[in-house]
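**Archive record**
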Amino acid sequence: MKFVEIKKRNPLLIDKLLAVWESSVKTTHLFLSDDEINNIKRYVPQALKDVPVLIVAEDENGNPAGFMGIAGEILEMLFVANENRGQGTGKQLLQYGIENYSVNKLAVNEQNPLARGFYEHMGFTIYKRTELDEQGNPYPLLYMKKE
């Protein structure tokens, strides 16, 4: 797996990352309906363009297997394509973020127990909970930090 920091975020790359995002979300965010996923999907390209640091994990063919976005020391997003799940991609991405960008905080949907367990396994603990997500939707968030 190769990690690439993306400076120039062209439309083709954004489309590929959007496909990774959708593949990941449909597998892990079982609390969201298809309509909710499609609604959120409209905002993802702008988030990918705006996040200060965007790291893409590329497979041996140069295709995105996963990606993460970082702002300061906060992990803003981490998604792994469904076909790449369980192969260490997310763990490698997060370790890369911790080692190279001092990532030490994140928020995760409470209704996504697999992600919560993954972050706990990686040394993050919950320090705050909110009833609503950052867009004001009724998806509780757990805020986690690395000890």
About this structure: The longest strand covers residues 64-71. The CA atoms of residues 2 and 140 lie 33 Å apart. The radius of gyration is 14 Å.
